[in-house]
Amino acid sequence: MTKTITAYVPADASAVALGADDLATEMAQYCASAGIELTLVRNGSRGLTWLEPLLEIDQGDGHRIGFGPVTPADVSSVLRSIDEPGSEHELAVGRVEELPLFAQQQRLTFARVGVTDPLSLDDYLANEGYIGLQNALQMSAQNIVSRITESGLRGRGGAAFPAGIKWQTVLDASSNSHPVGKGKYIVCNADEGDSGTFADRLLMEGDPFCLLEGMTIAGIAIGAEQGYIYLRSEYPVAHATLQAAIAAARDRNYLGDNICGSGKHFDIEVRLGAGAYICGEETSLLESLEGKRGMVRAKPPLPALAGLFGQPTVVNNVITLASVPVILAKGAQYYQNFGVGRSRGTLPIQLAGNVRRGGLFELPFGISIREIIFDYGGGTLSGRPAKAVQIGGPLGAYIPEPMWGTLLDYEALAEIGGMLGHGGIVVFDDSVDMLEQAQFAMQFCAIESCGKCTPCRIGSVRGVETLEKIRANEDRESNLILLDELCETMRDASLCAMGGLTPFPVTSAVRHFPEDFGGEQNA
Amino acid sequence: MSQTKASVSELVRHWQDVPGGLMPALWSIQNAFGHVPSHAVPEIASILNLSVAEVHGVISFYHDFKTEPASAHSIKLCRAEACQAMGVRALETFAEQRLGVKFDEQGPLVCLESVYCLGLCACAPAAMVDGKLHARLNEQKLGKLIDECESTEAGAHD
């Protein structure tokens, strides 16, 4: 009898970067020559990046046994091992859904990521997809918006602004007269430029329909007919996946005219950025979408009132929009029940840098930094002591070991001078030079500043120079004071978060790691 | 040359009536030619009803748009924090020395480019070589990728 198996090899960029495409080719070739009937699914990543490429095999009983990380050379021994009862392959990790670090998560937004075939709309529908949209189509616009408000969902891009309030503002606004702009818009910010963050990428590559559904619900809620996904050019896999998913959704009437027979119209276009970090800032993103230089706009007016092409616009991050379907499917209360304080729901925590088990863990708000680094991450990959973590991307603070008891929620991190941002955590071991990190923060700001406001454009350059003098022990004391004043100016006088938040990694490095800046405490 | 010009106008016309069509128009030109030739700028401007300054301003704002023909190969090494935590600074020096070019300079065969995050932060350091992603790099792996570039004439982006 011919043996039949279903195998899952992620098509996610991280898995591909670690050899998943070669693994998929070898699987197909080996099975063909061994007479095994193979159904190969290119799923998304489960987020357990240290196991990538993670090969999962289902022999027909519905259980997926994982092996990882697998190279093409391991394929024959892995496939032989599944036929020998009692034999345990050295790369075997058991049933993937029972792995403790997977099973302990609360995967609401990422429920399907790694499980389904990202480009199969049938698979999406069979796994609770588009239930949220079907519910939304039965509701009034105001009720949809109220449900989002009640869920407590806050913008996951970093600013943590309540999504429902933003939607309400756009719902209540009326369109403006504009030569190009018509109606209202939904804009998805997929310009995930922060180092240490990849939740948006994982979601778009692993469950693109979830984002499309969230955007469609948003469009119906606020009365927009056109949505844009502004995607960074560094994500070619996500780009291809989104394009294919949009075409599939249009084919089946989940996008376009008369969505699901409702008479409502909504469509989505993907627009590619061109390597400018600043375009992750919402007003700069809107300028770029309009075909201009990504120069930051002064606020007001808020994009909610005059955003893309002068029209009322919802600008939300990928994860914010991808959290909408589950809220509409299971209710505001269901989502609200997760989390702590004013941080409701779940947070896809991205653990990266020098860490043994890096990846994405979706958890309710409120786990401590230490638990994430050690219980999930297993400490540093280098085996050296961990010295600092940077949370929230290049504009986030460096946090030293004594503060790792802090819980990951928006308010708790703000209290210790940090910010949660998009939920990315980068771990550094004790070989890191914090002065070098502080200088890089300024350097990065100098490279990526849009140049519109002086504190950011000039301040960052002066910051790099001042830190160089501190390194050279040139008037160290007075230069540290100058650096502090420079940071204060940038923080208080910059037009947007780029210049305004660059001081966070700088001052936190100086404050918490004074030994790297020449010895004395400089609080 | 006249053939090139015709193609530019064809590519740009596709975006003529699309709101905010300049960025996708520039991408389509760069994808076709490997860069945005300076002689194409007045034509792009005229078709999209923009000034030459506006088009030039956009091209020069974004790191991705190139105005010179690209090297046959491109190595984009991620230089951001998560990769720094995994030792990319040593790899930067290694790559510059092996290739004999500085970052963001056109080499004869390979252009070594800075990129700030490929989203492969949990398997750092990472790079994109001729459009293909590679992670968990070390000197040995990066050296092999450089060898491969140097042993073949044309890259995937031609």
Brief rundown of the structure:
The complex is a heterodimer of chains A (523) and B (158). Chain A is an alpha/beta fold. In chain A, 40% of the residues lie in helices and 15% in strands.
Helix content of chain B: 40-55%
Helical content of chain A stands at 25-40%
Q: Describe the strand arrangement of the main beta sheet of chain A, using strand numbers.
A: 2-1-3-4-5
CATH topology of the largest domain in chain B: Glutaredoxin
Domain count of chain B, please report it.
Answer: 2
How much is the radius of gyration of chain B in Å?
Answer: 18 Å
CATH architecture of the largest domain in chain A: 3-Layer(aba) Sandwich
Number of helical segments of chain B? 7
Mean pLDDT of chain A: 96
- Unreliable spans of chain B: 1-5
Our estimate of the beta-strand percent of chain A is 15-25%
Distance between the termini of chain A: 74 Å
Tally of separate domains of chain A: 4
Oligomer status: heterodimer
Instruction: Tell me, rounded to a whole number, the average pLDDT of chain B.
Output: 92
